[in-house]
Amino acid sequence: MATEEHSEGLAFHPMDQFKIHPLFREIEPGTCVPDQGITDGCLKWYEVTNATLWMGLSILAIILVFVIGTRGRSIIPSRIQSIAELAYNFVHKMVEDVAGHEGVKFFPYIFSLFCFIVFANFLGLLPKSFATTSHIAVTAVLAVAVFLTVTIVGFVKNGTHFLGLFWVTSAPLPLRPVLAVIELISYFVRPVSHSIRLAGNVMAGHAVIKVFAAFAPLILISGMGFLVTPLSILAITAMYGLEVLVAFIQAYVFTILTCVYLKDALHPGH
Amino acid sequence: MEGDIAQMGQFIGAGLAAIGSGTAAVGVGNVAGNFLSGALRNPSAAASQTATMFIGIAFAEALGIFAFLVALLLMFAV
Fold this sequence. Notes:
Chain A is mainly α. Chain A has seven helices and no strands. Chain A is globular, with a radius of gyration of 23 Å.
């Protein structure tokens, strides 16, 4: 979706920002046409891309805040240390409240998830940056990891009692097989909704901002610009504010759902 | 004007699936609104229930996400 294809429409395509390209080279035009079997210039699986860069940057930022920022371990915390402590307490309380005391064992994993998603979301909000969490590939790996962890933990902890999650003993007997099918479907659909919720929210917000950003330079081209340009700049500002909110809320929702799934695995009874 | 009738069907289907995403917004708003009306009646109990509200919102949103998924599949996978 290059710019020249859309020359009569928007100045740029709103989905162009999600393109993954190699970091240290350009893909030569004509060297990557999978339809004709030409794949010499295509992206290789081992290549460093902009997605790799921004995932690495978010991990660097996490290390900066949580390892180097808290190095002082002062009783009166510095600013960065109090941010780290706030985040730590926030997630710790969430895990304890939702997943119970046994769930606290999994706190490091859940806290890592939360930090990675929060930092990836917020770094993705910087202009010219790349939102890694807008890619279903990234969020799907996180969600499938959670799904596998929870399933394995459920079977290790409860053995075959874990299957009681699907056999609702509180329901009348004739209803139970029907409920079992529904529960089974909803169990296996978890990683799908878990990943697409995050990716969809981040992707949609960024795309909307870019749509308005494409309307903004209209003042240079047409007479309607005097009306459209201020409105779209206002809309970008408003959407950006909403996106800051969404970036945090979606990380929160992802983590709390992880806790809920963990609770189901630790206490499968209904 | 170019393209065939199958492509037209894809685009119309994706647009229809977007309605499903919109109705999920109604569901999410319903959850949040009911939470707020309950919270204003009993503010002291509200703080302990925000997590439950977010879980409810997430589950209500899940079905909207399936509509969105159908739209994505129609646009890019079919």
